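G., the chain you wanted modeled:
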Amino acid sequence: MRIPCPYCGPRDSSEFAYLGDAAPRRPVDGDVEAMATYVYLRDNPAGLMDELWYHAQGCRSWLVVSRDTRDHAVSGARLAAAPGASA
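Predicted structure as tokens:
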């Protein structure tokens, strides 16, 4: 699988570390039930989703990668800190 890094260009996925779904937001500190749900209860959808990937062997940037989970086709990537990014 090739991931299009905005800085380094298309790179092999072995250069990246996968974090997971980019949509969930960390709950407020002290809410134990919400934190347990955030950590343990994740959806596993089939289809297009935004995921967080870290370019560990390259520019060391966090990316939001749009990937189809059915066939691993990557449709794009953007910096996680960019305006409009999910994370």
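The first strand starts at residue 2 and ends at 5.

Shout if anything looks off.
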